[in-house]
Specification:
Blueprint lengths: L7 E6 L1 H5 L8 H16 L3 E6 L8 H4 L5 H25 L4 E5 L8 E2 L2 H9 L3 E5 L9 H11 L4 E6 L4 E2 L11 E2 L1 E3 H6 L7 H9 L4 E5 L4 H7 L6 E4 L3
Parallel strand pairs: 1-2, 1-6, 2-5, 3-4, 3-5, 6-10, 9-11
Antiparallel strand pairs: 7-8, 10-11
Helix pairs in contact: 2-4, 2-9, 6-8
């Protein structure tokens, strides 16, 4: 196997991706396939942090709408991410991968509180660290939480595994003429309001000079391909 291009990565997985075709709940075949590839990354010497969304259970303001106070709706979304964190942790452990779950909201009976130095130490020891509860604050997405953790652990790149295979000029599901970008700058993403991440997450990534590689999780092997330097999906960076 060739040497990995990235030595430390932050993998962001949407909650919906873990649900598979059902779009709700957990699909353990999908989770198992993802964990198989994460194990390969660890065996290749890559340090892996993971942030997972909670949209397969609850999507904060989108589900709460005008029926709930925004802060409480977002807090429910943070708790939803923990369910996914524990499912991933269990699946990884079944495969012999050492893993730690850290949460931005303390729940010490089931996870460690997030401590930057401890997280980095776990990564250095070859453990996968799964970060739950986003940033721990309402009004911020788990995408922003992923960029924040990537900056804090000094990740080489953010791997954005979604249900789409790259960044397009328009919604490819609605516009058959939408063009897929191989590379695009943060400034272009923000100026064109392209749906890579929300603007807060994109700006934070730009300010901290962390490249984002967006690709489809439909084939989990894409995670390993990206780590090894293969051109998959779209790279969002400072200069083309």
């Amino acid at each position: 196997m060739n040497e990995p291009k990235y030595r430390r990565v932050l993998l962001k997985i949407s909650g919906e991706a873990l649900a598979g075709d059902a779009h709700r709940g957990l699909n353990f075949d999908v989770i198992g396939s993802v964990c198989d590839v994460v194990k390969q990354c660890v065996e290749a010497g890559v340090q892996v942090g993971i942030v997972v969304g909670g949209g397969n259970f609850w999507r904060g303001i989108k589900d709460g709408g005008d029926r709930m106070e925004r802060t409480r709706a977002d807090q429910m979304g943070m708790l939803a991410t923990v369910i996914n964190c524990l499912a991933l942790a269990d699946s990884l452990e079944q495969r012999g991968v050492e893993v730690r779950v850290q949460t931005a909201i303390e729940m010490t009976r089931i996870a460690e509180p997030y401590i930057r130095g401890r997280a980095i130490r776990h990564l250095e020891k070859g453990r996968v660290v799964i970060f739950g509860c986003g940033t721990g604050n309402p009004f911020f997405s788990t995408d922003t939480g992923a960029v924040l953790r990537a900056a804090e652990i000094n990740a080489d790149a953010i791997l954005l595994a979604k249900n789409v295979d790259g960044v397009y000029s328009d919604d490819p599901a609605k516009n058959p003429d939408a063009v897929k970008f191989d590379e695009i700058t943060y400034d272009e993403v923000l100026a064109r309001h392209l749906m890579v991440m929300d603007s807060t997450a994109t700006s934070l990534s730009m300010d901290n000079h962390i490249p984002i590689i967006l690709f489809a999780l439909k084939d989990p092997e894409n995670i390993l391909r990206v780590v090894m330097g293969e051109k998959i999906g779209t790279v969002v960076k400072e200069d083309k």
